[in-house]
TrEMBL record:
Keywords: Acyltransferase, Transferase. GO terms for molecular function: acyltransferase activity, transferring groups other than amino-acyl groups. Residues 8-148 form the N-acetyltransferase domain. Coiled coil: none annotated. This is N-acetyltransferase domain-containing protein. InterPro entries: Acyl_CoA_acyltransferase, GNAT_dom, YpeA/RimI_acetyltransf. It holds the Pfam family Acetyltransf_9. PROSITE patterns: GNAT (PS51186).
Amino acid sequence: MAELTFIKDYRNQSEMRESFIQLAQQVFGIDFTSWHEHGYWTEKYIPYSYSDGEKIIANVSVNLINLVVRGKTKRAIQIGTVMTHPEYRGRGLSRKLMEIVLKDFEGAYDIMYLFANRTVLDFYPKFGFHVVEETQYTTKYASSKPGRTRKLSPEDDLSFIYEFAKNRVPVSMTLGTVNTEELLMFYCLAAFPDDIYYLEDEEAIVIYQTTPENEVHIFEIVSQKKMDLHRILDAICTKQTRDVIFHFTVDQQEGMEKQKFHGSEVMFVRMENEMELPTEFKHPITSQA
């Protein structure tokens, strides 16, 4: 068997990049093609990989972002796209890549974290990570005064969304993210292309869905100024709305119900400089790698 080659940060090498995209499609069913073609794969997203010839066969990606924790900006590294080709599993490749990442970024972050499914609960603690529980925020809400909304589309409004998000304020000062507009654009392209709205009166972009059970799931609120959550809810809810579920931390606590978040993935964190996270928070889903 040929010796594997370590390679990183190859977004401008077309053959290796395409092989990475193919592996992500095979392992996760996600496609990075449009994200790259629109220019959203930047220097903030760094794949660390092993290749067999010109074929990427294992990967751990680094996302350089900033977390806002209790109003203070922290240097963060979010690990994502951890994958190995089925034919190369069981050889410790993810472990070796994690070790390289930890060495490369030693002393260069306040928090390193990732989201992983529950089948690997014993893997990441080997590298100093521990599980942190998230909190789900919900509220009862109904509105009889919907506001002016304009539906945005990936075909026509990507540039507007991207430029608007560059100057956003964090969705939460308790725990939010900044410098993550490229991750947001991935969700706009791949996850929520039909669920993006601009609220004219509030000057905010809201990504949300309404279920047949009249639940409103809000995945993101992008604003360039401090938002009034109740005015946003008035704009997007109806008389029939029963519950609103937030997929990020909510700072305006009045009327909120909170419970432990039980998702398909678990948050693992590794912190430096005696940093501590809030006891209750929900990491914004559109900043999740």
